[in-house]
Give the backbone structure.
Amino acid sequence: AKVIENTQRDLNIALVNELALIFQRLEIDTLDVLEAAGTKWNFLNFRPGLVGGHCIGVDPYYLTYKAQQVGYYPEVVLAGRRINDGMGRWAADQLVLAMARRGLVQPGAKVAVLGLSFKENCPDVRNTRAVDVVRGLESFGLEVEVFDPWVDPEEAQREYGLEVRLQLEGAGPYRAMVVAVAHREFAQLGAAQWQALLEPGAVVLDLKGVVPRELGAMRL
C-alpha cells in the first residue's frame, strides 16, 4: 500500500513536470495554468519540481522491479520515473541556454543553487535531485555555490562532496541562480534582497515559484 501511494504521487508530479516541459515551449507559465485549473473543485493540486527523497523517488522502483520479475513491463510507472529523474539536468541545461543567449557563459562564472535538501523546510538530503542541477552546471565549467539553511554541511560533504553555505548574507553577486527548494528563508526574501544577490543582467531559474514576479525570473 505504501509503495503504490508513493508511486501515485510520483506519477502525478511527473504529469505536471511534463506539462511544464510542454508549456515552456509554448511560452506559457505553468504555475499560472495550475492556479486557474485549481478553481475546479476536484482538480489535484500537484506542482512541478525536483522529485527526490527516500520514498517517492525510490518506491516506484520496488514495484517495477517486482513487476518485471513476474513478466510485466510497467510502462507508465517507468515513464514517470524517467521524466522526474531528468528534471535536474533539464533545469541546468535551461539555465545555461539562457545564459548563453546573454553571453554570460564563461568558465568560472559564479552561479548559485538555492536548496539542497529533497524538499522544503527539511534537512534530509537523501536522494536529493538538487544535486543533478549542481552537477549539470558544473559540467559546463561554471563555479557553483550551494546554499541551504536546513542541511548539515558535513553530511552534504560526506554524501555528495559538496560545500554548502548556510546563509545568503554577504553572498554574490552571481551571474545566474537556480532556486531548487522552496525553503521559507528563500520564500520570504523581497525583490531588493534578490537583486542584491545578482549581477546586472543575471539569469534566474525559479523552480518553485518563490521569486517575485517583477524580477522576470524563468519559472518551471
In short: DSSP finds nine helices and six strands in the chain. The mean pLDDT is 95. Residues 2-26 form the longest helix (25 residues).
